[in-house]
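C-alpha cells as discussed.
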C-alpha cells in the first residue's frame, strides 16, 4: 500500500468530528478501513455501527468502499460522490453532521454501554454527553492520556 496507513495499535484514528467533504465520521472510518487492510486496526472495527450511520446516509456499500482505500482521502471522496446512492446537498450534509456531533444514546442498552465507557475513562467529567465526546475521551485515555 503506497498511501500512509495509520497504525491503530499505536495511535487512535482521527476524531469522529473531523470532516471530509462536510461529512463527520468519514475520515475516522477511512483510517479504520486502511488500518484493517494492513492488520493494524487494533481494537477498531471498520463498518462498525458509527460507520454504518455514514454508509447508510450516503448509500455506500462498505465492501465496495474498502476496495478504494488505497487511494487518498480526496480520491475516495470523489469516488463516494460518484457512487453514493443518496446524492446529498451541502446543507443536508451539514445538518446530518451537526446532528451526529450532538447525538447521544437513544435506548437503554446503548446508554448502558455509553455510561460504562464514561465511567471507565473519565467518571468525574460532566462534559461527556455525546457519542463523539465519549469516543474522543476513550481514544485519548486508551493511548495513555489522562481524561
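Sequence:
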Amino acid at each position: 500500500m503506497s498511501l500512509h496507513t495509520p497504525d491503530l495499535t499505536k495511535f487512535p484514528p482521527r476524531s469522529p468530528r473531523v470532516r471530509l467533504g462536510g461529512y463527520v465520521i468519514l475520515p475516522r472510518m477511512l483510517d479504520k478501513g486502511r488500518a484493517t487492510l494492513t492488520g493494524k486496526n487494533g481494537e477498531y472495527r471498520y463498518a462498525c455501527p458509527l460507520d454504518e450511520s455514514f454508509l447508510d446516509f450516503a448509500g455506500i456499500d462498505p465492501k465496495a468502499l474498502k476496495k478504494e482505500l488505497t487511494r487518498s482521502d480526496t480520491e475516495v471522496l470523489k469516488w463516494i460522490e460518484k457512487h453514493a446512492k443518496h446524492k446529498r446537498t451541502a446543507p443536508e450534509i451539514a445538518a446530518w453532521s451537526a446532528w451526529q456531533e450532538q447525538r447521544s444514546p437513544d435506548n437503554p442498552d446503548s446508554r448502558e454501554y455509553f455510561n460504562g465507557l464514561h465511567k471507565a475513562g473519565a467518571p468525574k467529567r460532566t462534559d461527556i454527553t455525546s457519542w463523539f465526546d465519549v469516543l474522543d475521551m476513550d481514544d485519548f485515555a486508551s493511548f495513555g492520556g489522562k481524561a
